[in-house]
Amino acid sequence: MKNNLLYIVLLFFSIQFYGQNNTVIGKWKTIGDETGEAKSIVEIYEKSGKIYGKIIEILEEKNKKKVCVKCTGEDKNKPIIGMTIIKGLSKEGTEYTNGKILDPSNGMLYKCFITLESKDKLKVRGYIGIPLFGRTQYWLRIKD
């Protein structure tokens, strides 16, 4: 009886640990698709059942104080650090979709989906119209 209880407890903690490592929630280092260089740190979080991501750090010293001059609406002329760039994604199977992503460098808001490629690699696809017309970045998880 004690062995069965021990196995159940171990199984529970194993499932909890596995589930935490297979989520998009966390901090991610963004990698520019054109340069291949690290650009920023984005924290992805859940709010009211939807997924959001905000820039918490800019890695290039010259860009740390930039504001989004090309943005429209509530993001116009706001500091890029602290800006929510992933907005309202919903989980559908293994993919998070039906939301938007903002590119602060050009102020454009794109449709978006994200997928875990592995526990530490995130595929981020922004597009206009259909996913064929867009670009993909791969972000790397920051381990605390």
Describe this protein's structure.
The chain is built from one helix and eight strands. The protein has one helix spanning 2-21, and strands at 26-31, 38-47, 50-58, 84-92, 95-103, 108-118, 121-127, 134-141. An eight-stranded antiparallel beta barrel has the order 1-2-3-4-5-6-7-8. It starts with a helix and ends with a strand.
Structural class: mainly beta
Distance between the termini: 38 Å
**H/E series:** HEEEEEEEE
CA radius of gyration is 18 Å
Which architecture does the CATH hierarchy give at level 2? Beta Barrel
Number of domains: 1
Mean pLDDT: 87
Biggest sheet descriptor: 8 strands, antiparallel, barrel
Protein name: DUF2147 domain-containing protein
Pfam family, one: DUF2147
Domain DUF2147: 26-141
InterPro entries: DUF2147
Index terms:
single chain; 144 residues; mainly beta; Lipocalin; eight-stranded antiparallel β-barrel; 8 strands; globular
